[in-house]
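#structure-requests
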Amino acid sequence: MSLQSASSPIARPMCFRCRKAASTCYCAQLTPTPTHTQFVLLQHPRESWKAIGTARMAHLVLSDSWLLEGLRFLENPVIQNLLRDPECAPAVLYPGAQALNLDQASPDERAELFPNGKRPLIFVLDGTWWAAKVLLRLNPWLLDLPRVSFDSLERSEYDLIRKQPEAYCLSTLEAVSRVVQLLEPESLAPRSLLEPFKRMVALQYDFGKFKAADRGLRRSRSSRT
């Protein structure tokens, strides 16, 4: 006899690779793409199972990336090995007066930050601005690394489904894509990243409109009873 009653909700089939419902799984749309730049996505635990999060999609596309979930990362062996790697030139993607703006940096400034023979290693904080500040505070070793930033040229498409605090704010995936564009202009990775991202946003936006219409219909019916 089943322990599930007739009134119990039926669990939706899930894809545990992208952590989306099977009906909205985007794995088949992804094209794993190598980059010279390496990315380490440090994800706040609150972000890990959000249906509209983008760090996991970015990680699944970028062959040269790591996605680590937690609050404190210095003892993580992946972090230890990367920081000790003499062929890596680490930096943190985080805005501020101390950050080198990759849109405005001169060739000499870029060469000083990422010398020839070393691969850029970019740490990205994934979460809300509040969560990103928490991660920065709990990982003071990040403050010892150079910072990089860029100019936000367009409003985030993510704003359709998740309100951004400021017009210049981008999703994690869009930010990573922008860094690749600036450091590797010939790379195919931005296209590999943005195409499935845009499809996910459009699907989620349409789903949101459907739910809003459904709620309106139910309110209308209840007001007539």
